[in-house]
């Protein structure tokens, strides 16, 4: 039987450093009031003994858990099939890791999960929450407010906190401006029957992209707009319907790259050439999807990974040392909107 190896204790570190237990506790928990020579002796003893602080005990002292919940209001199948979420999570993870924080991923398969997520957040397990992919009728924001957890949202919220309070802190991309740039590019190519296949219109990003399309195509045939769901399968279904109702369409602005991928599949199966017969533009610039499309996809780039990093940065910057919600760095309210860029490839 393997003999258990005892972990070094605070007392052992104190004995090695020749200081009190209280001094060791202040140093390992980031407290002030310890002269640098003593602090250096403690740090050296910690390294020599391989001491690892007990997180539960440390949380009692600092009132911090060094953990952040990332709440994605989508089912697991959608999250792991869409590279957008992987990029945003990568940005969040990089920023949290740089600040020695743990990422706790919470997904919502359905409405029954919302109460579970709210209970977890209210239970004091994490120092804050990063929440994205919300839907317009989602109860999560209200539940999170009741939980009293510092929160940063990914995407423009469709509500305000009211009562003169600062609006929700959020990070978004210029969805409307990016959509305008895409549609103007198509119009500049001489296309006159420009369609838009939207994302799920219970999400503000899809609404903003539709508004950007309408900014340019205000008098367009309403049959040229079809609602979809940000997936390749949804893009295929919508494109088939579009060609059945408007066979003379000569350009498509798709709400995201996966939707555009579905559009390209249907155009190929119908024997239509891209961009000669129908030009196609997506949104996101998710690699390798955009580059591996046939032909490579013209699309609107948003810096998805940077959005994730900025969300985490705003949350960590707004947390005080005692674990409460402090002043966040500017600009934090009502939100930060990152620019988008049209990336031209062969599809348009």
In words, what does this structure look like?
The protein is an alpha/beta fold and about 350 residues long. The protein contains 14 helices and twelve strands. The strands form two sheets. A six-stranded parallel β-sheet has the order 2-1-3-4-5-11, sandwiched between helices. A six-stranded mixed β-sheet has the order 7-6-8-9-10-12, sandwiched between helices. Helix 13 links the parallel strand 9 and strand 10. Helix 1 crosses helix 3. About 5% of the residues have low confidence.
Summary keywords:
348 residues; alpha/beta; six-stranded mixed sheet
What topology emerges from the helices and strands here?
Elements: H1 10-17, H2 21-28, H3 36-49, H4 55-62, E1 67-72, H5 76-81, H6 83-98, E2 102-107, H7 112-122, E3 128-132, H8 140-147, E4 151-154, E5 170-173, H9 175-188, E6 194-198, H10 204-216, E7 225-227, H11 232-245, E8 251-254, H12 257-269, E9 279-284, H13 289-292, E10 298-301, H14 304-317, E11 336-338, E12 341-343
Parallel strand pairs: 1-2, 1-3, 3-4, 4-5, 5-11, 6-7, 6-8, 8-9, 9-10
Antiparallel strand pairs: 10-12
């Amino acid at each position: 039987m393997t003999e258990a190896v005892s972990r070094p204790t605070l007392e052992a570190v104190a004995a090695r450093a020749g200081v009190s237990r209280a001094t060791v506790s202040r140093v390992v928990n980031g407290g002030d009031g310890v002269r640098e020579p003593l602090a250096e002796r403690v740090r050296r003893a910690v390294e020599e003994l391989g001491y690892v602080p007990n997180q539960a005990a440390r949380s009692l002292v600092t009132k911090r858990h060094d953990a952040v919940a990332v709440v994605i209001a989508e089912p697991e199948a959608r999250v792991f099939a869409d590279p957008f979420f992987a990029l945003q999570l990568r940005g969040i993870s990089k920023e949290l890791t740089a600040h020695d924080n743990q990422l706790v991923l919470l997904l919502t398969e359905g409405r029954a999960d919302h109460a579970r997520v709210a209970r977890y957040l209210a239970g004091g397990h994490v120092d804050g929450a990063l929440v994205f992919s919300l839907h317009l009728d989602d109860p999560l924001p209200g539940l999170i407010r009741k939980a009293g957890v510092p929160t940063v949202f990914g995407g423009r919220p469709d509500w305000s906190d009211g009562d003169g309070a600062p609006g929700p802190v959020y990070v978004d991309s210029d969805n409307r401006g990016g959509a305008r740039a895409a549609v103007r590019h198509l119009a500049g190519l001489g296309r006159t029957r420009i369609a838009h296949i939207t994302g799920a219109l219970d999400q503000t990003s899809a609404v903003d992209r539709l508004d950007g399309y309408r900014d340019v195509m205000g008098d367009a045939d309403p049959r040229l707009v079809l609602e979809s769901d940000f997936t390749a399968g949804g893009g295929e279904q919508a494109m088939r319907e579009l060609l059945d109702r408007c066979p003379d369409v000569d350009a498509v602005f798709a709400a995201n790259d996966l939707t555009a991928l579905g559009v390209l599949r249907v155009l190929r199966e119908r024997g239509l050439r891209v961009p000669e017969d129908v030009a196609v533009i997506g949104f996101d610039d998710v690699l390798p999807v955009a580059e591996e499309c046939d032909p490579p996809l013209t699309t609107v780039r948003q810096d998805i990974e940077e959005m994730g990093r900025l969300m985490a940065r705003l949350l960590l910057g707004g947390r005080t040392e005692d674990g409460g919600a402090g002043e966040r760095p500017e600009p934090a309210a009502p939100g930060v909107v990152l620019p988008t860029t049209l990336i031209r490839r062969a599809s348009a």
